[in-house]
Every structure is written in C-alpha cells, then in structure tokens.
Amino acid sequence: MKKLETRQDIEDLVNRFYDKVQSDETIGFFFNDVAKVDWSHHLPKMYSFWETLLFGQISYKGNPMAVHFPINAEVPMEKFHFEHWIMLWTATVEENFSGEMAELAVYKAKNIANLMAHKMEVARKTR
Ligand code: HEM
User: Fold this and answer.
1) N or C: which end of the chain has fewer CB within 10 A?
2) Does residue 118 form part of some domain?
3) What's the CATH code of the domain at 117?
4) Are 98 and 2 in contact (CB under 8 A)?
5) Where is the signal peptide (predicted)?
6) Distance, CA 106 to ligand 1 centroid (Å)?
7) pLDDT tens-digit profile of 79-116?
8) Structure ipTM
C-alpha cells in the first residue's frame, strides 16, 4: 500500500477522514450542528496541522486545544466521542496508507485525542 509522504497524501487522508466524520452518527453533529463548521476553512487548517505534526513543515500556527473548549461547554465532549474519533482516524489511515509515517499519524492522533479528552473532562468538572 501507499506510503504517507507528501502534502497531497495528507490532503487526501484528511478529506477522506472528514467525509466519514461529516456523515457520522456519533460525532458528526459536533461539526455540522454545534460548531457549524465552514469546511472550506477547516480542511486547509487540518492539512497544515498534520503537515506540521508529521513533516515538521511549520505551516500550522494555532492552538488546537483551545477551539474545543467552547464546543465542550455547549455539548460535553466525552471519552467515547474521542474513542470514536480515534477509530475513524485509524480506519481512514489504514485503508489508504502504510509504513512508518502512517503509524506515526495514528500514534500522534491517539496521544492528542487522549490528552484532549482529559482536558475536556477537567474543564467540565471545574466549571
Ligand atoms: C470527538 C472529537 C473531536 C471533535 C468533535 C472535534 C471537533 C472540532 C470542531 C467542531 C472544530 C472546528 C472549530 C471551529 O472552527 O469552529 C475542530 C477544530 C480542530 N480540531 Fe477537533 N475535534 C475532535 C478531536 C480532535 C483531535 C483528536 C484533534 C487532533 C488530533 C483535533 C484537532 C483539531 C484542530 C487542529 C482544529 C483546528 C484548530 C484551529 O482552528 O486552529 N480535533 N475540532
């Protein structure tokens, strides 16, 4: 299977992932109904985010945690939502790519998702 090695690969991966997310029954509503995401804005941000994480090409400058707090304040983002997010991400990576960079994409996503889940839980408790 194909290695994950170019910016175009990242764009393909991210597009396929958010295709799944948009129509997903468990987490799709966060994007469609809660945050009402402008995809033409969100997707390029996510290409840059992953390019920065995986290739060290610093094209994303932002605070990935911060944007999730207001969403979490509106509708709790629970552990099972993050587990579902990880399941969709892992499936999309593994359906399309193999090799070290693909494994790194799964590994980094899991770490961030677990940290984010924890931060969202703490934020709900201290409100
Ligand atoms: C259930 C899990 C998640 C949900 C429902 C979710 C939802 C969202 C939504 C709705 C936005 C758009 C906010 C806006 O533009 O108004 C967003 C942005 C973003 N998310 Fe998530 N997210 C989840 C998990 C994650 C994870 C695990 C990561 C990282 C691996 C991540 C990385 C990002 C980044 C980088 C942005 C863009 C931040 C910026 O504007 O600079 N998200 N997310």
Assistant:
1) C
2) yes
3) 1.10.490.10
4) yes
5) none
6) 16
7) 999 999 999 999 999 999 999 999 999 999 999 999 99
8) 0.97
Place of tokens 């409100």: 127
CB-defined site of ligand 1, < 6 Å: 27, 30-31, 35, 37, 42, 45, 49, 62, 64, 67-68, 71, 77, 81-82, 85, 109, 112-113, 116
31-87: pLDDT as tens digits: 999 999 999 999 999 999 999 999 998 899 999 999 999 999 999 999 999 999 999
Atom of ligand 1 nearest to the CA of 45: 37
Residue 94 lies in a domain: yes
CA of 121 to the centre of ligand 1 (A): 16
Full residue range of the structural domain in which residue 69 is found: 7-125
Asked whether residue 1 is assigned to any structural domain, the reply reads no
Q: What total of structural domains would you count in the chain?
A: 1
